[in-house]
Design goal:
- With 467 residues, the chain is an alpha/beta fold.
- The chain has 3 domains: 157 residues, Methylthiotransferase, N-terminal domain (Rossmann fold), CATH 3.40.50; 227 residues, pyruvate-formate lyase- activating enzyme (Alpha-Beta Horseshoe); 55 residues, Nucleic acid-binding proteins (OB fold (Dihydrolipoamide Acetyltransferase, E2P)), CATH 2.40.50.
- It has a 7-stranded parallel beta sheet with strand order 1-7-6-5-4-2-3, sandwiched between helices. The protein has a 5-stranded mixed beta barrel with strand order 18-19-20-22-21.
- Helix 8 runs parallel beside helix 9 and helix 12 runs parallel beside helix 13.
- The longest helix is centred in the C-terminal third of the chain and has 24 residues.
- Bound molecules: iron/sulfur cluster (SF4).
- The site of iron/sulfur cluster (SF4) has 10 residues, from helix 6.
């Protein structure tokens, strides 16, 4: 308790390094309770939510799936686009009703949006007791306990980036299902001009191979047969003379692990050796996310993506040659400042040339503090033009995806059954190439692998039947 009283005297703003660690948390404690965590954004955030749940579980907090049952509500946020932040602001407003009913409830905002505008959230959004950035989760238990005991003032901001924090020694509380997220890297050393990630997650930090492998082994022992290795540029992983190809091979050989995926790679770090590991190791799924962002060299240069269209296409060609049948997905941003109609058409032609299995398509969203916001204002693409380009991109991709997936109809694929679908009696599973299939079956099959015949496709997903 002495430590918590000391925090109160500090006036509400904490350096994470000054706080006690979660490993001491849970001893001699007076409070415990329930926590509800809502997650927005990418897979890294899903992994972080599981990490936070693990930190709080150390202190006796039990996770609940209804905010009405929670003593603590955490909203784990994304800052990558304006729209994502607006959604969170709306949600924080809705969550006030729980606080109105129970003023003792602690409401915290974590993740990239907390890191980006945490001070503003504390000042301007009613009822936020705590903001914590991605390097502060180790200390969540102490702060939450302190607020609940009245020993720490409300309005805590844990926003120090910590270049040494890799969360070693902590355990996650994983979600249901057969698939586990394992973070191998945090932060990013690139400076793509549109991206807020390096500013809210700091520079790249890699966990040691032994820690990663131990976590995968633990997940397998816990009943997970598929893992996804996570990192902001996961394939730039480097630790103790291991590169990502080494790590992937070692993980793929963990006894009992049936499937391993990874996300999100940077195209420049897709080496021949990595592709060879993908081809040689049976557990590595033949699936690669290759974020292109644009098909025009002018735009790629302004984005500081560090590859040309030609180099990107060479990587695609190499991947398809070394890993036959590999499924490729991508990210595209349209309407980046200075994007001309010919630039945009180059992006459309890239989609036509590659014929991605899947694509995540966005309009450029300016983020304060990123270099793209300092490009000349006259370069802005008018909103109606950006919207129309997005719609044209979606239309083109959907047509390509339908054709690509139609070619797979009638094939039999191994599917890992993940969960029940919305329509009663249907299950959802994924093929090795990450394609979603819906088919009839009992919930008892969840977590198992079955051979499923693909019978039809809507374009993005398949219908199937057990073969
Ligand atoms: S590689 Fe670029 S887009 Fe990806 S997280 Fe780093 S800065 Fe952002």
């Amino acid at each position: 308790m002495t430590e918590l009283v000391a925090l109160k005297r500090n006036g509400g703003r904490q350096r994470a390094a000054d706080l006690p660690t979660a490993t001491s948390h849970g001893t001699g404690r007076a409070v415990a309770g329930t926590v509800y965590i809502e997650t927005y954004g990418c897979q890294m955030n899903i992994g972080d939510t599981e990490l936070m749940a693990g930190v709080l579980a150390e202190g006796g907090y039990v996770q609940v799936d209804d905010p009405d049952l929670a003593d603590v509500i955490l909203v784990n946020t994304c800052a990558i686009r304006e729209h994502a932040e607006q959604r969170v602001l709306g949600r924080l407003g809705q969550l006030q009703r729980y606080r109105n009913r129970r003023p003792e409830l602690v409401l915290g905002v974590t993740g990239c949006m907390a890191q980006r505008i945490g001070d503003r959230l504390l000042g301007e959004v009613r009822g936020v007791d705590l903001v914590a950035g991605p390097d502060a989760y180790r200390h969540l238990g102490e702060i939450v306990d302190g607020i609940r005991l009245g020993a720490v003032e409300k309005g805590q901001a844990l926003l120090e980036l910590d270049s040494t924090e890799d969360y070693s020694g902590l355990s996650s509380v994983r979600g249901k299902g057969a698939s586990a997220w394992v973070t191998v890297q945090r932060g990013c050393n690139h400076r793509c001009t549109f991206c807020i990630v390096p500013y809210v997650r700091g520079p790249e930090k890699n966990r040691t191979p032994s820690e990663v492998i131990a976590e995968v082994e633990e997940a397998v022992q816990g009943g997970y047969s598929e893992v996804t290795l996570l990192g902001q540029t996961v394939n730039s992983y480097a630790s103790e003379n291991w590169d990502f190809a080494d790590l992937l091979r070692a993980v793929a050989r963990v006894a009992g692990l049936r499937r391993v995926r990874f996300t999100s790679p940077h195209p420049n770090d897709v080496s021949e050796r990595l592709l060879e590991v993908m081809a040689e190791e049976a557990a590595v799924c033949p699936q690669l996310h290759l974020p292109a962002q644009s098909g025009a060299d002018r735009v790629l240069k302004r984005m500081v993506r560090r590859y040309t269209r030609r180099e990107f296409l060479a990587t695609v060609e190499l991947a398809r040659r070394i890993v036959p049948g590999i499924a490729l997905s991508t990210d595209i941003i349209v309407g980046f400042p200075g994007e001309t109609e010919p630039d945009f058409e180059a992006t459309l032609s890239l989609l036509e040339d590659v014929r991605f299995d899947d694509a995540y398509l966005y309009k450029f969203s300016p983020r304060d503090g990123t270099p793209a916001t300092r490009l000349p204002p006259g370069d802005d693409v008018p909103p109606d033009v950006a919207q129309s380009r997005l719609e044209r991109t979606i239309q083109l991709h959907r047509g390509i995806q339908l054709e690509v997936n139609r070619a797979e109809v009638s094939a039999v694929r191994e599917v890992l059954i993940e969960r029940e679908a919305r329509s009663p009696g249907d299950l959802l599973g994924r093929t090795e190439t990450n394609k979603v299939v819906a088919f009839r079956g009992p919930a008892a099959w969840i977590g198992s692998y079955l051979q499923v015949r693909l019978t039809a496709t809507s374009g993005a997903t398949f219908a199937g039947e057990v073969a």
